[in-house]
Amino acid sequence: MKLFWGLGKVLTLGFWLVVLVNTVLALPNPFDLLINMAGSLLLLTHLLELVLFNGSLRGRMRPWMDRGQILLFGIFHLQTFSRSQAEIAHA
Fold first, then answer.
1. Are 74 and 46 in contact (CB under 8 A)?
2. What percentage of the chain exceeds 90 in pLDDT?
3. I need a labelling partner for 44 at 20 to 30 A (CA). Which of 33, 53, 70, 83 fits?
4. 3-state percent helix, strand, coil for the chain, nearest multiple of 5
5. Counting Cβ atoms within 10 Å, is residue 42 exposed (0-12), middle (13-18) or buried (19+)?
6. How high is the mean pLDDT of the chain?
7. Number of structural domains in the chain
């Protein structure tokens, strides 16, 4: 399962790289609009995740770093976060 979350983070980072390239260089006409819309939707989703899981970040050592990773990776960072908290609780 750890491999799945790591692969998800790599793919999400790759997608953000495509969105960044699309903002710097103009891609062909139908694709630039679709990439911008998908990037906006993903950013909106990650912001919603950040608002919903903000309460669980208060006990973390570096909550601002976690917030940045949630904005970048979304649920893939939240899954590793909940697993590490569960390991601490059982220890």
1. yes
2. 46
3. 83
4. 85, 0, 15
5. middle
6. 85
7. 1
Positive or negative, the CA dihedral 86, 87, 90, 91 is negative
pLDDT per residue as tens digits for the range 16-58: 999 999 999 988 888 999 999 999 999 999 999 999 988 888 8
| Beta strand extents in 47-87 (DSSP E only) | none
How far apart CA 19 and CA 32 sit, in angstroms, is 9
Report the amino acid identity of residue 76.
Answer: F
Per the listing, tokens 């980072």 go with 13
pLDDT, one tens digit per residue, over 47-85 is 999 999 888 888 888 888 989 998 999 888 888 765 555
Q: What angle do CA 60, 65, 69 make, to 5 degrees?
A: 110
